[in-house]
Every structure is written in structure tokens, then in C-alpha cells.
Amino acid sequence: MLAMSSEPEKPVSLIDVGQKLVGHSKSAEFTANRGLVVQLFPFIFEASERMSARAVSRFLEADQNIRLSAVTITKALKEPKKSWISFFETLEPHATISARWFRPASFKYLFWSKSEYETRIMPDADNKITRALSRGVRALLQPQRVEADKVLMEKWFTIGMGTRLKARPYLEEHLRDLEDKF
């Protein structure tokens, strides 16, 4: 209910309102986390099988101090192909480096288990010294490859195998297009 005032109301200038809004946005806490939903998408995707977007949003804010609205989460989940491709594009340069190393060059390795990938990127060594020497030589001879493997182990292979397999249909066309560029 509006309070009655004896003063005549001044007409509201939308320009003034807009400028005040922008001024407030500069002093208020930053809450635009669009890039964050891309980085967290695989985990949100998996959690959404058991939780609502609102529950995911509440968990992130309460337990992790991350503000990501339920609306943003819902939007990402409603467009899974777009969301998966956006996520994968952050890994694409690293995935391409590794794909070129495998023969035949392809992205099939993305859907191996983490242990199978680790075994294939690092030759078997009989002991710790041989393994350490192999890593050192590889780091000197293939620094880009070592960095690519590190990023993939950290950002792709930490995603559960079931979730990665569910992502496959969304990524297949994109990955085929990348392979065609080899």
C-alpha cells in the first residue's frame, strides 16, 4: 500500500533511475557468475539428477559461499548441448594437443577411465626412479603435452565417468568437427 503524501509527485526520469542503478551496481557486491556456471556445469549436471536447481543454488551459497542463482542453473540445464560445448571449449586447446598425440588422432580418450588415460600417457616404468626420469624427460621434450595432460586430469577426468558418457552425445558433433581440422 502506498503512503499518501501532501507533496506533489515529481515525474520519474528513467535516465535518473538507470544511472542510479549503474551507480549502485558499482558499489554492490559482484554477483554475475555466468562464467562460473560453465566451469561448474558438469557437476551441476550430475547433481541435478538428485537435486533441484534451487537446492543446488542453496548448497553453493551456504556451503561454498558461491552465489549462482537457480534461474542461471536452470537455464544451463535446459540447454545441455550449449552448456557442455561451452564447458568443453575451455578445455579444447588442451584436448586437441592430447588428441594429436594418440594414434589414430581422435578424442576417444576423453571417454576412457582416468586410470586408463594415466596409463596411456605415462609409459609403464619398473620402479619409481625410472618413472621419475620418464616424467622429467617428457616435461623437457613435450612441455605443451605435459600441461595439456595436467589440465585434462584436473578439469575433465575429475568428472565422473557416467557424467562424461552422458555428455558424449552433446559433444560428438563438436568433437567430429575438431577431428576434421587435424
Structure overview:
By secondary structure, this protein is mostly helical. Helix 2 packs across helix 4, helix 2 packs across helix 5 and helix 5 runs antiparallel to helix 8. The chain folds into two domains: 49 residues, no CATH class; 101 residues, no CATH class. It is 69% helix and 0% strand. It has nine helices and no strands. It is elongated and about 90 Å long. 17% of the residues are buried.
Order of helices and strands: HHHHHHHHH
Into how many domains do the coordinates divide?
2
Helix content: 55-70%
Radius of gyration (CA) equals 24 Å
Beta strands, count: 0
Overall average pLDDT: 84
* Tally of alpha and pi helices: 9
Biggest pleated sheet = none
First and last CA, distance = 66 Å
Strand content: under 5%
Spans of at least 5 consecutive residues with low confidence: none
What spatial form do the alpha-carbon principal axes imply?
A: elongated
Structural class: mainly alpha
Fill in the keyword field for this structure:
182 residues; mainly alpha; elongated
Write the layout of secondary structure elements.
Blueprint: H1 14-27, H2 34-47, H3 53-64, H4 70-78, H5 80-101, H6 114-121, H7 128-141, H8 143-155, H9 161-180
Helix pairs in contact: 2-4, 2-5, 3-4, 5-8, 5-9, 7-8
